[in-house]
Each structure stands twice: as structure tokens, then as C-alpha cells.
Write a structure and sequence with these properties.
This protein is α+β, with helices and mostly antiparallel strands and 178 residues long. It has a single domain, classed as 2-Layer Sandwich (Beta Polymerase, domain 2), CATH 3.30.460.10. A hairpin with a 6-residue loop joins strand 5 and strand 6. Helix 4 packs antiparallel against helix 5. The radius of gyration is 16 Å and the shape is globular. It starts with 6 loop residues before the first strand and ends with a helix. The model has no long low-confidence stretch (mean pLDDT 95). Its EC number is 2.7.1.24. It is an enzyme of class 2 (transferase). Keywords: Kinase, Transferase.
Length: 178
């Protein structure tokens, strides 16, 4: 199928799942491990592109687990060599990087979410991916929530994220009860 990767700033669009995304993830994972010297287990494919047969924004989300976030400047240099740039996104215990497909830095194709390895956020994001992959009814529910937003508007990434938040937090809470 090969849906084209990339989404403009503040744009929200969903496309059909593409198995090629997993191949692209594996290629970029190899590059990330090569420039950072991190073990492969610390670079994970997350987000909807890691969940087969669910509509997704055409952006590959990558979870990067590091020992110390205070080494972010060193990682900045490593990741720049393969086209990732740190964004000004402010999140607790997380740095976000993006890879762009254009020279104007407007169309993002990949995100890296750098978090402390084995932290709660690491475990929650892995759990969310794995839970949806093993619970088809929740996968369908999540897709319905995402589509309900996109049917109303095609812009507003913060609003889109807020629209999904209750569902995501509910899945995160299941990690402690299983």
C-alpha cells in the first residue's frame, strides 16, 4: 500500500494502516541505535502506526529509553546526524524530536519520545500499544474516538490529543490492575 508519511503542523488526518510502516521503523531503529549506541530494546515502535489495522496519522512514533534525561544535549547531536531535531514541546520527563521530509521543517514524518528507560511513561506507552494489539474491541473503540474528531475537523493537534486523553488514561490505568 505504502501510504506517504508526513503531516503538516497542526494538521490531523487519518489513513489506513500500512504494513510498510514497520519496515520503515526497523530501518530508522537501526540508524538510531548506530548513532546513540543504545541497545535495540530501548528503541520501540509505539503509537497507532505500531497497531495493525487501525487508522493512524501517517507519522511513525518512536519511544527512546535513556538512563538520564540530563544527557539530552549529547543525544541532540547524535540524533541531528540522522535528521531528528528536538522540538520545543514541554512535557514532564520527556523530550520530543521530529524528522521532517521538507527543508522548511513543516512536514513531520517521525517523532521520537525520549523518556527515562523503564519509567512509568515508558511502561505506559508500551502497555498501551501491546494492550490494543491484543484487545481488538479496544482497538476499534480507539479508532472510533479518533475518527469522531477527524469527521469534525482536520486541524487542531492539541484538541485531537485532548479528545483521546480519557481513553488513553483509562488504558494506562489497566496496567496496574493486570
Amino acid at each position: 500500500m505504502q501510504n506517504e508519511l508526513g503531516i503538516a503542523k497542526n494538521q490531523v488526518k487519518l489513513v489506513d494502516y500500512d504494513p510498510y510502516w514497520n519496515i520503515l521503523f526497523k530501518e530508522i531503529k537501526t540508524s538510531i541505535c548506530a548513532v546513540t549506541s543504545l541497545q535495540e530494546s530501548r528503541v520501540q515502535h509505539i503509537g497507532s502506526t505500531a497497531i495493525p489495522n487501525i487508522k493512524s496519522k501517517p507519522v511513525i512514533d518512536i519511544l527512546l529509553g535513556v538512563d538520564h534525561l540530563d544527557q539530552v544535549d549529547t543525544y541532540d547531536e547524535y540524533l541531528k546526524t540522522i535528521g531528528f531535531y528536538r522540538l520545543k514541546v514541554q512535557r514532564e520527563n520527556e523530550y520530543v524530536y521530529a524528522k521532517f521530509k521538507d527543508t522548511h521543517f513543516e512536514i513531520k514524518t517521525h517523532f521520537i519520545h525520549m523518556v527515562p528507560f523503564e519509567s512509568d511513561i515508558w511502561k505506559n506507552l508500551i502497555f498501551f500499544r501491546d494492550y490494543l494489539n491484543t484487545h481488538p474491541e479496544k482497538k476499534i473503540e480507539y479508532q472510533t474516538i479518533k475518527q469522531s474528531f477527524v469527521h469534525l475537523q482536520s486541524e487542531g493537534i492539541q484538541e485531537y490529543t485532548a479528545h483521546k486523553e480519557a481513553f488513553i488514561k483509562n488504558i494506562f490505568s489497566l496496567r496496574h490492575s493486570l
